[in-house]
Amino acid sequence: MLRYITKRVFSMFITLLIIATITFFLMKLLPGSPFNNQEKLTETQRYALNEKYGLNDPVPVQYINYLGKLAQGDLGYTFQFDGRTVNSMIANGMGPSATIGFEALIFGTFIGLFLGIIAALRHNSFVDYGAMIVAVFGIAIPSFVFAGLLQYYVGVKLGWLPVAFWDGPEYHILPAFSLSVGVIATVARFMRTEMLEILGTDYILMARSKGISKKEVIIKHCVRNSMIPIITILGPMAIGLITGSLVIENIFAIPGIGEQFVKSINLNDYPVIMGTTIFYSFLIVVIILIVDILYGIIDPRIRVAGGK
Amino acid sequence: MKKSKWSLLLTLVLVLSMFLAACSGGDKDKASDSKGGEDEKATEKPSEPQVLNLLDGEEIPSMDSSQATDSVSFEVMNNVMEGLYRLDKDNKPTPGVAEKHEVNEDGTVYTFKLNPNAKWSDGSQVVAKDFVYAWQKALTPDTLSEYAYIMGPVKNANAIQTDGDPLYGKVDQLGVKAVDDTTLEVTLEAPAPYFLGLTGFATFYPQKEEFVKKQADKYALESNTLLYNGPFVLNEWKHNEGWQYKKNDNYWDKDNVMLDEINVKIVKDVATGVNLYETGQTDIAGLSMEYVDQYKDNDDLYTRGEATVFFLRLNQKSEVLKNANIRKAIDMAYDKQSMVDVLLNNGSTPAYYLVPGEFTPGPDGEDYRKTNGNFGEYNLEKAKELWATGLKEVGKDSVELELLNYDSDGAKKMGEFFKNQLEKNLPGIKVSIKAQPFKQKLDLETKGEYDFSYAGWGPDYQDPMTFLDMFVTDGAHNQMAYSNPEYDKLIEGAKKETDEKKRWQMMLDAEKVLFEDQAISPLYQRGVTGLQKPYVKGLAHHLFGADTSYKWAYIEGKQ
């Protein structure tokens, strides 16, 4: 197992290096310069600014310099805000983004699992249809529409919860709930399908005929075995959620990092483009590793195959 | 198992009620009022609390006056800092740190007498050398100030910024001198009647050298690594979330500052801003076009003209657009009025000019725009005639031209409108649209790789020159290969002329020349629209630099 993990960690860094390289050169193909006042800059100033940020060097030199700093964990300075480092931007923005995302993930997964299991156990009943209607709505309605409706009706019309901003726990409810709708829907549908398949297998019948109670069979055999595909989708979903949603953060005025993924590209803010991409990729590869290890715990067959 | 049935039912009811709530409820009108009432209770005081709540769309990019380049930074600084003068409600210079000033006969030497009561927020006096330091700092090449060019009117400022000039980087040669603590002498390159107003611009604010050096690279990054000398101080600055102004007790004119506190929250979404306005959590909210109709009968709705003009660059590198008749035909062939009414609907007005209206009064007190009037009109018949002549002159019967556009929704609609009108009204023209992200668009524009380009320009100082000198031959912002020696001569002349009336006339004539040539096709002068609570009074709006001053603002009648 240890050898397996070491091997995976090594290939993780190779993956990151490849991602960083491709992003760097693609980014350099963007036309335009990163300076705010580009319209009014004189030639002398433009040259001096480029010099300061090392943008006059040939691209391969810039690339080597960047990797050197990256190896020390230094992501450089943003061009958008005077004197602010990319590290601090990510550190400050990740808090709110990750909080909301994590809340949405936990809430969404539990509700989704619950709906999925119930729907499968009450297959083709009113309960099943009800749960699946909810799931279809959840997938069909984009989270920003849902967020807008919640904000207007719950925040403005009813006045039950804050319209926006980032303060106490009550400020988390609407954004986290808006984000979780997609999670609920996806998890519920996956869980229902998996459960139905497993409920029909021979080993469940066998367990039942051995005299094990229905409750125990469902929890120990059915649910556990149905979890594998759920864990597979939860990984990437988790990253998507905790790195922040541009739209949800904008609607609820949450000071997260989501916006920078898009904005930095439009503004040619090179260090932020690189920083957010590498950070995101890093999370992805780590989560994939965790998911793979979790597989092994849940399904011993996978552990044996990978761990030799 | 019984338990789970109940919880299932509960969940379903909860989830379904959410959808039902979303589908109905349109008629539960004023349920929000109670919420607004609760908010007020929290701050209830015997007299009316002087607290203003606002939204802004962006985080403050910089609080270092020599680094700032954008409207958010300029606005915040205008309220926590002060230059020699500041602009009042009528956009006239009113004393700031300077009590009064004298100008020598030919208008090139200004002697400012500083107010001895002008203090920094640490209690020390704002002295003349604080200005000298800040101005020299902005021009030092290492500072890399993107706005340093604004100091152009000050003697030697341009030479100091020009690489290769004997004066390059020699900031001690700048035309500014601290005679004593309260006397500042500024020498200009040439007379500039707008200079007084310019001293209220961020780049001209003072900085206290001792403090700046002590903070080193932490200077102006947080609210406590900055000294203030304006009507307010930044009490709190939560990056990406918002900031709070508090009245500055060390301010020389604090008796005229009425607000105790201004809370600004960052909100990027217009709909969110409107919802916050409806629940009373903000006193002002900007609106985008789609909300204007919804609020058009609401007393809180305001529209305000700005001094920013949008226009189409007509690139004369193009064989076709080199022809003056064709350029004139194009300008006449689309309906600017309906473009503004239908696509913008926000207080913007169609433009038939370069220098915006209600921006600069001349020596006779009359607005530049009023004196010069409009150039061009929407006239299909004439457009077709000129078009036919023009095509004959270039020897073509059909042309294909490219419009370089921004990739925002608003700009895209504008581009489509222009394309449709032109293709409908001018036989043989085909317009293709190339929408690009902001920076990329500027880059293509600089390289001159376009035929039409949707562009805008806001003023840097209150004078027609800030618009006019864009289009001199080979000017950095010309970008469309326009050249007319007569135009160049007028601009150059106006820059040197000491007689204000003659100077004004030259600038009036220059715009006429520009439109005889139809160098550009103006689109509209931008307006802004939004909602403002009736109890917010005394806001001063400006046309360049900072948008708003809160110095004279107050709350009246909220309770």
**How would you name the oligomeric state of the polypeptide chains in this document?**
heterodimer
Average pLDDT over all residues of chain B: 88
Number of strands of chain A: 0
Q: Class by helix and strand content of chain B?
A: alpha+beta
Overall geometry of chain B: globular
Mean pLDDT of chain A: 87
Low-confidence stretches of chain A: none
Subcellular location (chain A): Cell membrane
Pfam families (chain A): BPD_transp_1, BPD_transp_1_N
Protein name (chain A): ABC transporter permease
Organism (chain A): Fictibacillus norfolkensis
Q: What would your notes on this structure say?
A:
Chain B: It comes from Fictibacillus norfolkensis. Chain B: Residues 26-48 are annotated as: Disordered. Chain B: This is Peptide ABC transporter substrate-binding protein. With 308 residues, chain A is mainly α. Chain A has 13 helices and no strands. In chain A, helix 4 runs antiparallel to helix 5 (126-140), helix 4 packs antiparallel against helix 9 and helix 11 packs antiparallel against helix 12 (270-298). The longest helix of chain A has 36 residues, at 86-121. Chain B has 559 residues and is of the alpha+beta class. Chain B contains 18 helices and 21 strands. In chain B, helix 10 packs antiparallel against helix 13 and helix 17 packs antiparallel against helix 18. Mean pLDDT of chain B is 88; it is low at 1-46. The chains are: A mainly alpha (308), B alpha+beta (559). Chains A and B meet through helix 2, helix 4, helix 5, helix 6 and helix 11 of A and helix 1, helix 8 and helix 15 of B.
Task: Tell me the layout of helices and strands.
The complex is a heterodimer of chains A (308) and B (559).
Chain A: H1 2-28, H2 43-52, H3 59-71, H4 86-121, H5 126-140, H6 143-157, H7 170-199, H8 202-209, H9 214-242, H10 246-251, H11 258-266, H12 270-298, H13 300-307
Helix pairs in contact in A: 1-12, 4-5, 4-7, 4-9, 5-7, 6-7, 7-9, 9-12, 11-12, 12-13
Chain B: H1 2-23, H2 33-42, E1 51-56, H3 71-80, E2 85-87, E3 93-95, E4 98-103, E5 109-114, H4 128-139, H5 157-161, E6 176-180, E7 183-187, H6 195-198, H7 209-215, E8 232-238, E9 242-247, E10 261-266, H8 270-278, E11 284-286, H9 289-292, E12 301-314, H10 324-332, H11 336-344, E13 349-350, H12 368-372, H13 380-394, E14 399-406, H14 409-425, E15 429-436, H15 438-447, E16 452-457, H16 465-468, H17 485-496, H18 500-516, E17 520-532, E18 536-537, E19 540-541, E20 548-549, E21 554-555
Parallel strand pairs in B: 1-10, 14-15, 14-16
Antiparallel strand pairs in B: 2-3, 4-5, 5-7, 6-7, 8-9, 9-10, 11-17, 12-16, 12-17, 13-17, 18-21, 19-20
Helix pairs in contact in B: 10-13, 17-18
